[in-house]
């Protein structure tokens, strides 16, 4: 296909001189792919050299201690990659006689190896006809072919994989996969690519339609905020409690809740006791305070994670406008509070 030929020609003229491109050794290619997850090439390359020097073979890596591996990985971040790397090396060395699986399907069985990494090893080491699809590939193909599918949606991965498979030259999949990823990294960059010098500036659909800046389409991931709620379940001498309606805008608007102490982090008994006696319920005589649930309840909303603790506070007086515990369930509560009311022994 003309797209593939032009792309490969560009690659041969513009590719970076990277050490893992000079070998078909699956151990080296695997190392590089794991290191480059969530990591820029410039940052990852010194680690690649350090690992291949310290651990020339998968047996050397397997025989190292986890502490040695983590120390050499220090500064690269995402340390679960290093632990998975070590475990996979032990698996390959001890269970597979030091020989990496030679096909995409079996490579997927290795710990820490996902679809992208498996495809990279399979095509670069064994020339298997399998497309490598990462963020760079999403961007290049979505722009060139004007594909508006949301790349954050799981179904879109299949769509792009099928398209990439059609484009891969069956006689040389490795060079195409390298080329499309390199093109996305160097030329078809996320922001403000220089389309005037692009080899596809006469055929790119996004450029013709002035959509380069809006492709690929990716639904924004909501930033999750952690909040810490301490609900204070007041109990007076006649068995009444106190509830209040959430009238402020935001979550749970117009639903009911117990008096709330919101903090910046999970707090202990002493902090709750101080707030209750000195501030929140200072007009009452507090007889006792106890935590109602052993573990903090984590309630996940689309954009917030609520860390909730419930505290029972017994007082000597009678609550004005108190609600009997038997009637509490008749009010509309957020489900996390309602579930507590249903299960809690204190609300009989």
UniProtKB/TrEMBL annotation:
GO terms for molecular function: 4 iron, 4 sulfur cluster binding; 8-oxo-7,8-dihydroguanine DNA N-glycosylase activity; adenine/guanine mispair binding; metal ion binding; oxidized purine DNA binding; purine-specific mismatch base pair DNA N-glycosylase activity. Adenine glycosylase active on G-A mispairs. MutY also corrects error-prone DNA synthesis past GO lesions which are due to the oxidatively damaged form of guanine: 7,8-dihydro-8-oxoguanine (8-oxo-dGTP). It is an enzyme of class 3 (hydrolase). Coiled coil: none annotated. Its EC number is 3.2.2.31. InterPro entries: A/G_AdeGlyc_MutY, DNA_glycosylase, HhH-GPD_domain, HhH_base_excis_C, HhH_motif, MIG/MutY, MutY_C, NUDIX_hydrolase-like_dom_sf. The lineage of its organism: Bacteria, Pseudomonadati, Bacteroidota, Flavobacteriia, Flavobacteriales. This is Adenine DNA glycosylase. Gene3D superfamilies: Helix-hairpin-Helix base-excision DNA repair enzymes (C-terminal), Hypothetical protein, domain 2, Nucleoside Triphosphate Pyrophosphohydrolase. Its cofactor is [4Fe-4S] cluster. The keyword DNA-binding does not apply. GO terms for biological process: base-excision repair; mismatch repair. It catalyses: Hydrolyzes free adenine bases from 7,8-dihydro-8-oxoguanine:adenine mismatched double-stranded DNA, leaving an apurinic site.
């Amino acid at each position: 296909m003309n797209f593939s030929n032009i792309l490969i020609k560009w690659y041969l003229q513009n590719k970076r001189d990277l050490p893992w491109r000079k070998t078909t050794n699956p151990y080296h290619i695997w190392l590089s792919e794991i290191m480059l997850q969530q990591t820029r090439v410039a940052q990852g390359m010194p680690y690649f050299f350090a690992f291949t020097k310290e651990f020339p073979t998968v047996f050397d890596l397997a025989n190292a201690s986890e502490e040695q591996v983590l120390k050499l990985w220090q500064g690269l971040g995402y340390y679960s990659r290093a632990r998975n790397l070590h475990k996979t090396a032990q698996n390959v060395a001890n269970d597979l006689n030091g020989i990496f699986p030679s096909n995409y399907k079996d490579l997927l069985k290795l710990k820490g190896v996902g679809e992208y990494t498996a495809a990279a090893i399979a095509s670069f080491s064994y020339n298997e006809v399998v497309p490598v699809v990462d963020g760079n590939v999403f961007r290049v193909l979505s722009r060139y072919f004007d594909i508006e599918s949301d790349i954050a949606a799981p179904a879109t991965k299949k769509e792009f994989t099928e398209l990439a498979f059609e484009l891969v030259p069956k006689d040389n999949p490795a060079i195409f996969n390298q080329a499309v990823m390199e093109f996305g990294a160097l030329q078809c960059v996320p922001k403000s690519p220089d389309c005037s010098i692009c080899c596809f500036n006469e055929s790119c659909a996004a450029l013709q339609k002035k959509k380069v800046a809006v492709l690929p389409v990716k639904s924004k991931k909501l930033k999750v905020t952690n909040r810490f709620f301490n609900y204070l379940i007041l109990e007076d001498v006649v068995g009444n409690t106190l509830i209040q309606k959430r009238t402020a805008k935001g979550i749970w608007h117009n639903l009911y809740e117990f008096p709330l102490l919101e903090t910046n982090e999970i707090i202990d008994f002493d902090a709750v006791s101080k707030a209750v006696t000195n501030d929140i319920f200072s007009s009452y005589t507090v007889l006792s305070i106890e935590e109602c649930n052993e573990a903090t309840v984590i309630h996940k909303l689309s954009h917030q994670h609520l860390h909730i603790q419930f505290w029972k506070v017994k007082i000597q007086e009678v609550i004005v406008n108190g609600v009997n515990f038997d009637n509490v369930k008749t009010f509309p509560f957020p489900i996390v509070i309602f579930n507590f009311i249903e299960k809690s022994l204190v609300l009989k």
